[in-house]
Hints:
Elements: H1 2-6, H2 13-24, H3 35-58, H4 69-72, H5 75-82, H6 86-102, H7 109-112, H8 117-146, H9 154-174, H10 182-201, H11 214-221
Helix pairs in contact: 2-3, 2-10, 3-5, 3-6, 3-8, 3-11, 5-6, 6-8, 8-9, 9-10
Amino acid sequence: MLLAGCSLPPNTALRDWARLASVLADHPSAAAPSPVDRDGLLAQQEALAIYLYALSVLAQEESTLTFRAEAFAPLVPRAASADPAAGPAVAEIGRLLDAARAGNLAPGARASSAGSPTVIEDLRLRPLIRAADPPVQVLVGTLSRATFGAPGSDQDTYRQLLAAIGEGHALLKARASNIRQREVEREIHAQEDRLRRLMLILTPDPEVGLRPGAAGMVGAVVQP
């Protein structure tokens, strides 16, 4: 049984869900009645996408998280300009990611540790998921409330995507103690499938790769 367990493929469900959610959080369907509100909503999207990408990094073995606090800090007042509740939520995500970055192990530390790389990473991953769920849910709510559109529109689908991201992250929080178990992996895969089905309904972003936004901020804040 031990040999069979060792032969199981790596559990990538959390990484894959978080990366897909990070990309979809950036969809331009979020709408607002004024340029100031639009910038504030974009900042909220950027903060949510950054957190989800960082989560995908920490879900990998031997992971080292990059987080540039000085690049992230301007998102706080921008997010608050659209909704006062969003500013503290973005600030809390920044604080949590900065603490997670400070928890990066020194080179060679994993090799000399008695624990497996997965166990070592989970000591940081699990508390992050639990602590980040409240601000994540705040951003899901503020973005949803500010996104207008009739049933069946792209804006309506985007609101469903936000709800799916919020529910997916709530699942991670509830299962944080057993996040690597195969049963939990199947639940996370089901959440990823839900996101992919909604993604197929959305009109493709015609400016993907060209439009400045969350993708650019992910690169500026948490990508090497």
